[in-house]
Amino acid sequence: MKENVTIFNHPLIQHKISIIRDKNCGTQEFRSIVSEIAMLMGYEVLRDLETELVEIETPLEKTMVPMLKGKKLAIVPILRAGLGMVDGMLALVPSAKVGHIGMYRDEQTFEPKEYYCKLPEDINKRKILIVDPMLATGGSADMAIEYVKKCGGSDIKFVCMIAAPEGIKMLSEKYPDVQIYCGCVDRQLDENAYILPGVGDAGDRIFGTK
Ligand code: PRP
Ligand code: URA
User: CA-to-CA distance for 96 and 193, rounded, in angstroms?
Assistant: First the structure.
């Protein structure tokens, strides 16, 4: 695995991913667990946020305390499934701005098709977390990173829950400057470019569309 890839080995993350793999896990549970996983991942992904000392007054005395400083954040979900990770991340950093990148995979070619993109205007000044539960061929993540870069974004992390070896290899080699965080690397892609064992179609499972 390349240096720019972090695989979470935290038992809570592993356990929660295992729960959503079960085909009997319903929409409501699936959605809320995806959000919990996103929050757990966010805690680690944001470990490098800088702090500065600020003076405050406790009931007893004045003191210097660390507060977040520096670049602001942008959370950028890849629609639709990435939306499921936004609330969990926002719970940690409520002041983050949220961009959207809408794309779906063509069912025959598996190539991503873009249909909607909107990023915060000052994206070039922000730390950017692109989020999507699934990294399969890597086509969607690739297109999303290109788009964010074209809009001026440079401080980019990509956060996913489950990846196929193919997707993680492609992304980590093509973007050595992007740190990739992943809950679990699965075995392989099937003939329809679905991740095995995976969770099936994450968008359908989060929104109950199938
Ligand atoms: C899923 C998933 C990723 C993409 C991953 O979205 O959420 O965006 O597939 O596949 P890739 O790595 O091969 O590009 P999908 O296209 O199914 O759209 P949806 O979230 O709207 O269902
Ligand atoms: N997109 C999904 O939602 N699931 C997969 O397994 C692959 C792509």
Answer: 33
31, 105, 126, 205: the catalytic one is 105
Q: What is the pLDDT of residues 24-76, one digit of tens each?
A: 999 999 999 999 999 999 999 999 999 999 999 999 999 999 999 877 999 99
CA-nearest residue, atom 13 of ligand 1 = 137
Q: In this predicted structure, what is the pLDDT of residue 70?
A: 75
Closest-CA residue, ligand 1 atom 6, reads 104
Question: Closest residue (by CA) to atom 7 of ligand 2?
Answer: 194
CA distance 4 to 210: 35
Q: Which ligand 1 atom sits closest to the C-alpha of 202?
A: 7
The model's pLDDT over 108-136, given as tens digits with 9 standing for 90+, comes to 999 999 999 999 999 999 999 999 999 99
pTM: predicted TM-score of the whole model, two decimal places: 0.96
In this prediction, residues 92-114 reach a mean pLDDT of 94
C-beta of residue 206 within 8 angstroms of C-beta of residue 161: no
Q: Is the CB of 35 under 6 A from ligand 1?
A: no
